Amino acid sequence: MEANRIYPDPAQVREELIQKYPVKVAKKRAKSIIINDPETIPEVQANVRTVPGIITQRGCSYAGCKGVVLGPTRDIVNITHGPIGCSFYSWLTRRNQTRTESLKDENYIPYCFSTDMQEENIVFGGEKKLKVAIQEAYDLFHPKSIAIFSTCPVGLIGDDVHAAAKEMREKFGDCNVFGFSCEGYRGVSQSAGHHIANNGVFKHMVGRDNTPSEGKFKLNLLGEYNIGGDAFEIERIFEKAGLTLVSSFSGNSTVAQIENAHTADLNVILCHRSINYMGDMMETKYGIPWMKVNFVGAESSAKSLRKIAEYFGDAELKARIEAVIAEEMPRVKAVIDEIRPRTEGKTAMLFVGGSRAHHYQDLFSELGMTTVAAGYEFAHRDDYEGRNVLSSIKVDADSKNIEELKVTADPVLYNPRKSEAELEALREKGLEINGYEGMMKQMTKKSLVVDDLSHYESEKLIEIYKPDIFCAGIKEKYVVQKMGVPLKQLHSYDYGGPYTGFEGAVNFYRDIDRMVGNPVWKLIKAPWEKQGAELEASYVTQ
Amino acid sequence: MLLRHTSSEVKAREGLTINPAKTCQPIGAMYAALGIHGCLPHSHGSQGCCSYHRSTLTRHYKEPVMAATSSFTEGASVFGGQSNLLASIETIFSVYEPDIIAVHSTCLSETIGDDLQQITKKAKDDGKIPEGKYVIYASTPSFIGSHITGYANMVTGMAEQFSESTGEKKNQVNVVAGWMEPSDMREIKRLSKELDVKIVLFPDTSDVLDAPQSGKHVFYPKGGTTVAELKSTGDSLSTLALGCVSAEPAAIALEKKHKVPFETIDMPIGLTATDRFIMALSKAGGVSVPDEITAERGRLVDVIADMEQYLHGKKVALFGDPDQLIPLTEFLLDLNMKPIHIVSGTPGQRFEKRMRQILDERSPETNFKNGLQADMFLLHQWMKNEPVDLLIGNTYGKYMARDEDIPFIRFGFPILDRIGHSYFPNVGYSGGLRLVEKILSALMDRQDRDALEEKFELVM
């Protein structure tokens, strides 16, 4: 529903956003600031270098690999090879929850492991120290797996983490050791690290255990990192619906599950940006189709469940899923009915991640709120415009440096779960099989789409649109709030959540209601600062 | 058990650091640079460095932390980062309009050998630094020292690159703040005012990282040491460095450049360290100590005397940064407590020497280690071997405290899960009072929680 207010002319907004930049910068930024048209989706410049000196939201490849994709794994000893900082900053800061069955199970998430490289390691090489560190980790913990993450200096000084990993793996025999060349300078954002992580997990983990998994409707959950317990809620729903979750990449996951993932019959992808490579590679090698779903939003969750039922094509499953939806929805509806009169017509802006800026629009629209501007921090054009633009994306020098694994069908294990005709029929029914239509198709005409939003642009947007809520991350949180606008963190959820599924939707509605209606925003001005509050005579003589 | 894989058996490690009690240099440089008025810190490296540092500082302060990055890609890493830095300087001055850009390096730019002095000179020669604006720099390789080293290097950079001497002495004393909170810096200024000594405190993050909610984001908040003040440090009577690790190098730089004599004292945390600070500052300013300060001190001593039964003999484990741990350890001994396990990831013999001076006489049996592998994993193992009544350290300590079921006081950097550190000081007598209150509350809450019903006390 359109909000009851007048929006500024987006073309003019764009001019205003870039006018202060030096000419070359303005020219570049203009290509990433787009006025949306869901009918004929315009091209967005994305996944290109951030202009040096610009205050960006983006992080690095290491953050995408170690922080995002591998961070949620609990039974891998994740060793950062580098100076101390990188391991320290990625230590427990992403709120990846995990739940072991017993106290005996491995859980290294609360730990931080680093080789703490010193100057002599930079000068004379750090491989020796790395191998000592791996040995010490093995001796102390005897883990199933040890993974090595390279930080910037490692690639520059030529340490071969893969050789070191191989040597130690062969030496141990009972511990899978593997490395990631995820130096921070690779690519242009976290995105490069996602790709590198996908490659490593695919090469070193997936397919190691061919034991057939049990269950009738077996699927993997891809691109769900269990921030704030999101995966727990999805697990709850799947269990209720009779779906068997073989593995999760990588929220609340175990090594054993990931090694057995190729025995599932469907991959559902939540965060397309960070894990689509895995979907593609598993399809090619094992014949498992992937499907884009979204469990953020109650309606979206229901829709995604129906799509999964449709994929498996089983009447009983369909009926059970309808029953689950029928059971869960009234509770959700009741909360919407209570809250929506307070949120209806309000506006939101979302600048975050590589899929969240899209997914969370569903929750806002369930509250009757309009997304007036949105953009991703590290996405590619396909996340904006849909995967049908993939072939037209120019591969630049920065992307070329990221390895594309050459994957072929496994001579033994390749087994197409559906025929091409069956897949086509499912697509006809609206299932995003091996596809993703992107964010812009869902956004309104003339809404603003901005890739890799800069600090300067965010302040301008807030001044111009005065949104009721702004969604971004920790670096933006207090800047925006100083402007009197509440900011919802969509990386860390402001330490709340879960926000997925039906329970998550309710949590989110309540959080947004609380934030946009909080009385504190009206307390900012002191009484004597308010207009018309002139000092009056404070006493009367008698 | 969150740290279920930590066993009590201590084995020497040489390659692996587990649960570090330190982080890397650049974040310290970024924090220090925020203590200059009108300054934008700039991280010369990959985007991730800047993002991680801003995130950590933001979580610690719950405040905007603005900083820019050279956004290195693979090309810059191979061919050198000069063009990235030059482009950054140009973009920053036109878009964000700071008075000063404070550039620090990273492990990436240091490994490839970028020379910040040469690049900033080139920026100046090429006319990329507008009239009246400044670019300062500090070399802060992450593979040397710790966040404390980075802080010291940036503070030294400020002193070296801004200080001037006119030949005429100013009636003022430089006070170099070691790594402390904005609340602590505010308290140092208050005490100096109380003493009637004019000081130039640098850096000064008060009114920067504790900015008021005004409905506006003030990009360069009103706090921070001004350029004029920094320039004047060469004319000061003397310099007082608060901390031998994080503050002294800047004082040495001022002595070298302008022959400003300096004295290094411990950061004024706790009773006796604050006594030394007050004495040193009153001496440097040639003033006597006013009664009000004596009364403040007296209130702290009074509380310690009144509550000594709850403090004495209590065993404490602590971890954190050298300049804070030194006076904190001394204060715990003054409180008749037993600091028995201490680690700091920051290397250096100054710290070790000073700690030995404090511990050898009064607590020679204390387990103490700093530098490589002096990490929280080791501390936790020590705690398993000899349990403590209290743990003091940054937020990461909460995992050990929960597993071992011991009271925990958040102290140091980073504190990610509580507020207060940026508003209420730990330095000075009032800071000491706050620490004693926190320690007593933690211990006495535990006593109340664990007391048998018949032993539950109303008055304590």
Based on the model shown, name its key terms.
heterodimer, A: 542 residues, alpha/beta, 6-stranded mixed sheet, 4-stranded parallel sheet, 21 helices, 14 strands, B: 460 residues, Rossmann fold, 3 domains, 5-stranded parallel sheet, 18 helices, 45% helix
Report on the structure:
The complex is a heterodimer of chains A (542) and B (460). Chain A has 542 residues and is of the alpha/beta class. Chain A has helices at residues 10-18, 23-30, 61-70, 84-89, 119-124, 127-141, 152-157, 161-172, 190-204, 230-241, 255-259, 272-286, 298-312, 315-343, 356-366, 381-385, 397-400, 420-428, 455-465, 474-482, 501-516; strands at 33-35, 76-81, 113-114, 145-150, 176-180, 218-224, 244-250, 266-269, 290-292, 347-351, 370-375, 448-450, 469-472, 487-489. In chain A, strand 10, helix 15 (356-366) and strand 11 form a beta-alpha-beta unit. In chain A, helix 9 (190-204) runs parallel beside helix 12. The longest helix of chain A is centred in the middle third of the chain and has 29 residues, at 315-343. Chain A is globular, with a radius of gyration of 24 Å. The N and C termini of chain A lie far apart (61 Å). Chain B has helices at 25-33, 47-61, 74-79, 82-95, 107-111, 116-125, 147-162, 182-195, 227-232, 248-258, 271-285, 291-306, 308-311, 322-334, 349-362, 376-385, 397-404, 428-450, and strands spanning 17-18, 39-44, 68-69, 100-105, 134-138, 173-177, 199-202, 238-242, 262-265, 315-319, 338-344, 367-370, 390-393, 408-410. With 460 residues, chain B is of the alpha/beta class. The relative contact order of chain B is 0.13. Chain B is globular and about 80 Å long. Chains A and B meet through helix 3, helix 4, strand 3, helix 5 and helix 6 of A and strand 1, helix 1, helix 2, strand 3 and helix 3 of B. Strand 3 (113-114) of chain A pairs antiparallel with strand 1 (17-18) of chain B, so a sheet runs across the interface.
